[in-house]
Specification:
mainly alpha; 4 helices; elongated
């Protein structure tokens, strides 16, 4: 295999030319704009979320706090089992 020096220099110059073509007159590389798009499904989910400061929410939280303080708050074992199963199936 024979390597010709003039051809190698020509290739190096070709790379240098393509690198310089991106730089504009100001000497800076032009940047694109960032953009965020929220899907319609995500917007719908956002609308369905309850406002954390709504009176209904505060009433429910106060009721749960009272049950916990009195020792009458009970979680059905079926719901606990369902959450464990869904967690384990998701993380397989």
């Amino acid at each position: 295999m024979r390597i010709n020096e003039p051809n190698r220099i020509g290739m190096i110059n070709a790379y240098n030319k393509t690198g310089n073509s991106q730089i504009g007159k100001s000497g800076k590389i032009p940047m694109g704009k960032d953009e965020v798009n929220i899907s319609t499904e995500a917007l719908e989910m956002l609308k369905q979320l309850e406002d954390p400061d709504s009176p209904q929410r505060r009433e429910k939280v106060d009721q749960l706090k009272k049950q916990v303080e009195e020792g009458t708050y009970r979680v059905p074992s079926e719901k606990i089992a369902e959450k464990f199963l869904s967690f384990w199936q998701k993380n397989k």
